[in-house]
Amino acid sequence: MIDKSKKSFDKNENLNDKVKKIDAKRQRKENLTYEEFVLLLSINEELDFEYSGILYSIVHNPPFVFLGRNVVYENGKYTTEKVAQYSTVFDLLDLTRIDNKAIKDIWEFITIP
Fold first, then answer.
1. Is residue 2 in some structural domain?
2. Residues 82, 32: Cα–Cα separation, whole Å
């Protein structure tokens, strides 16, 4: 279960400032913390991540959030190996298992392209 009360940011920093700092890290190709990843997902950012050579994509399509595996865009069309549907980002993060582990538990091995 995700601890939604845990804060890794300065409490005096507003959301826009947090997102700007995270965007700057992404532009510099720096790794995000798990908390930064969750923050971006919670404001409806759509993110890709790679684990063990497999690309995963998280897409918001209200009222659901989708996790796709090996998503490819070719000839104007998306294809994917597997898609899982969740009610919320937090459900996705709580319920998804990759190699029988939660995303949080494999975070140190995840890269964001």
1. no
2. 25
